[in-house]
Amino acid sequence: MPLTPDLAAFLAPPAPEQMPLPPAARPAPGVRLLRGVPYAYRAGVRPLELDLWLPDETYHPLPVVLYLHGGGWRAGLRTEMGPRFRHWDPDPFARLAQAGFAVASVDYRLSGEAVHPAQLDDVTAALGWLNARADELGLDTRRTVSWGESAGAHLAALLALTAPLSGCVAWYGPTDLTTLPGQCPAGAYDAADPTTREALLIGAAIADAPDLARAASPVAHVHADAPPFLVLHGTEDVLIPLAQGEQLAAALRRAGARVDFRPVPGAGHGWEGLADDEAERCFTASVDFALACTAGLLPPVHQ
Length: 303
Known about the structure:
By secondary structure, the protein is of the alpha/beta class. It contains 10 helices and 9 strands. Strands 1-2-3-5-4-6-7-8-9 form a 9-stranded mixed sheet, sandwiched between helices. The longest helix is centred in the C-terminal third of the chain and has 20 residues, at 276-295. It is globular.
């Protein structure tokens, strides 16, 4: 039996921007954590949630880091910044809050739940939720940096190229799905395979749907008004080769946008094989870049 409009309205979940916030946890000194806050409801799937990390004491609206986890668009957890940082105490999100950021670490629909552009729609909705509750939470969402690793870097780049953000930090992310097969080691990637991570993201094998693959690629959305980008990519990454980071950086430079591209010597995917102090340097460089973006400290691009 179809629902009447009145019954559908009665049964609908409350608008996420109007729901009460959960009580704060205290995971680290000077840090509050609002865990599992619903930001969107999508028919047929779980509620989409974010974790919001906040410094305890603030005297002005906070800049925001919107963080997107990796996992090949098929898996991954919003609770961590990748496997390389699981042992950190305080963890990276707490350290960002201690540095003066609000950090929203965001769920999005995985490829088993929906195909592209659903994931971009979700992270855009998370940005909308933050905007709607900015006054209540003490956020300055006009100063927002997207940050992601691997598949999350792909989404962070897409968000930065399609929404008004202050900057983007992209760690070892895919940037052009159409060229990725040819850049992987020989025999490691079959563009006709409909079961690759990228094929499952767009709903078809890359070889069979080049237009869909292109539309899902950050390089296809680069424009002159793009915010500043920091692109870090391991030189020994065989899962998402260094050439993917090079492509995004080259496209941004051609468009006249600001990009700081830093190959990370000896690093594999997820910073595998990197010494602890080098992983720390990657994190610190990214925090410094986010601080500069949100403080307006980056000089203009010289044409």
